[in-house]
């Protein structure tokens, strides 16, 4: 079988994480992704560090499988090249600063009039309208605005989650919306505009906490490695100085944890712990019981007993330990992709249909494909004289 998005062309004016991760996943499924970058500078993540044999960790993660074209969209000739690419593209993805597309003469509504089959993804921080629509948005800023930092960390010490969930969540919503839009276009023949605001994404991800406030009126408190909504559920130090993570997600699991794992029938029968809401109120007491039990046992013993009792459990790993995780290695989740400095390791896409081909991909050097792309559009223009409707780029700034 071929890759499912073979024949789909994605044009992207992107930087940082949200748009690049969306388009990288589209490339993983076989789409041709042309990444438009500012000449001489490129995507800002190219310059974050040099840890991957001279390349930046972020850039390598987010951009393999793409072509890189250096185009100055404020320059008339470069804008004409871009317009010719756009005329044959299926999808345009952008996460430029507020108002930047319109200033370049690329207002999404106008683009859809010119190219009725085009799918335009316009990623912003806060959407159009409202008091914040003019503001730049980075992951930390949106997470702070969206409340996720307030339920992370411990009371009095809020924290940003270690992974950029606002960026990643936005990328995944954009990715899935593009797939839905391509399916809808097959039925209707029409493209669409998909505006995605990062704040809306974080607000959606905060749904359980929002419901608690809207309906209960009580602000959730962060509980470190745990959940403010469930108890017991957390990390505990073992006798061999490891950290085991144990959790219950239902009243039935609590019965198994108390009766089978802890061998404490009196806890299993105690009405004070019968319901999750009761256990959340008595979280500290339950954490003390579990901490004492884990402190008397090694990690391997705890995990074996937990598995036998049907209780979810895990080991707290560092990033270094994740890189060598046997579950990833034995399932052959690692592959190699090309780059300007030779093959580098990359994970396979998380979601693949059985039998789908995964393109080899490569990490592009800045402007690696510019000359080939210019020649491509020039050849097509010669073959289709008069077929090109240029964009009005007079608004570019």
Supply the key terms.
397 residues, alpha/beta, formyl-coa transferase, domain 3, 2 domains, 4-stranded antiparallel β-sheet, disordered C terminus
Q: Can you characterise this structure?
A:
By secondary structure, the protein is α/β, with parallel strands linked by helices. It has two domains: 9-205 and 331-395, Rossmann fold; 226-315, formyl-coa transferase, domain 3 (2-Layer Sandwich). It has helices spanning 18-28, 57-63, 76-88, 100-103, 108-114, 139-146, 165-188, 198-205, 207-216, 251-261, 265-269, 276-281, 283-295, 299-309, 319-323, 326-330, 370-383, and strands spanning 9-13, 32-37, 66-70, 91-94, 119-124, 153-154, 157-158, 192-197, 226-227, 230-237, 243-247, 313-315, 334-337, 344-347. The strands form four sheets. Strands 3-2-1-4-5-8 form a six-stranded parallel β-sheet, with helices on both faces. It has a four-stranded antiparallel β-sheet with strand order 9-10-11-12. The relative contact order is 0.15.
Task: Outline the fold blueprint.
Layout (H helix, E strand, L loop, with lengths): L8 E5 L4 H11 L3 E6 L19 H7 L2 E5 L5 H13 L2 E4 L5 H4 L4 H7 L4 E6 L14 H8 L6 E2 L2 E2 L6 H24 L3 E6 H8 L1 H10 L9 E2 L2 E8 L5 E5 L3 H11 L3 H5 L6 H6 L1 H13 L3 H11 L3 E3 L3 H5 L2 H5 L3 E4 L6 E4 L22 H14 L14
Parallel strand pairs: 1-2, 1-4, 2-3, 4-5, 5-8
Antiparallel strand pairs: 6-7, 9-10, 10-11, 11-12, 13-14
């Amino acid at each position: 079988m071929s890759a499912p998005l073979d024949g789909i062309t994605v044009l992207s004016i992107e930087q940082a994480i949200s748009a690049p991760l969306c388009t990288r996943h589209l490339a993983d499924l076989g789409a041709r992704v042309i990444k438009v970058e500012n000449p001489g500078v490129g995507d800002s993540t190219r310059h974050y560090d040099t840890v991957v044999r001279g390349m930046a960790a972020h850039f390598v993660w987010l951009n393999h499988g793409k072509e890189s074209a250096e185009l100055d969209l404020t320059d008339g000739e470069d804008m004409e090249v871009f317009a010719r690419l756009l005329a044959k593209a299926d999808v345009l993805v952008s996460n430029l600063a507020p108002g930047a597309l319109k200033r370049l003469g690329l207002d999404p509504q106008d683009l859809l009039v010119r190219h009725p089959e085009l799918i335009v993804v316009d990623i912003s921080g806060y959407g159009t309208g409202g008091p914040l629509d003019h503001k730049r948005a980075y992951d930390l800023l949106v997470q702070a605005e969206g409340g996720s930092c307030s339920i992370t960390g411990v009371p009095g010490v809020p924290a940003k989650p270690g992974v950029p969930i606002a960026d990643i969540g936005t990328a995944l919503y954009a990715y899935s919306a593009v797939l839905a839009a391509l399916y809808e276009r097959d039925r209707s023949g029409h493209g669409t505009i998909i505006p995605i605001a990062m704040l809306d994404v974080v607000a959606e991800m905060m749904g359980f906490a929002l419901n608690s406030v809207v309906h209960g009126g009580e602000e959730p408190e962060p509980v470190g490695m745990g959940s403010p909504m469930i108890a017991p559920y957390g990390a505990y130090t073992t006798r061999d100085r490891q950290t085991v993570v144990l959790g219950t997600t239902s009243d039935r699991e609590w019965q198994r944890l108390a009766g089978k794992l802890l061998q404490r029938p009196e806890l299993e029968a105690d009405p004070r712990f019968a319901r999750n809401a009761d256990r959340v109120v008595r979280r500290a007491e339950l954490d003390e019981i579990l901490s004492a039990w884990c402190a008397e046992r090694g990690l391997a013993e705890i995990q074996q007993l937990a598995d036998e009792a049907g209780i979810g459990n895990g080991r707290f790993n560092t990033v270094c330990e994740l890189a060598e995780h046997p579950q990833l290695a034995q399932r052959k989740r690692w592959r190699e992709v090309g780059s300007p400095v030779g093959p580098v390791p990359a994970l396979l896409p998380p979601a693949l249909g059985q039998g789908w081909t995964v393109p080899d991909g490569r990490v592009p050097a800045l402007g690696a494909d510019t000359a080939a792309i210019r020649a491509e559009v020039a050849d097509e223009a010669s073959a289709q004289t008069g077929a090109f409707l240029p964009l009005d780029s007079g608004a570019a700034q």
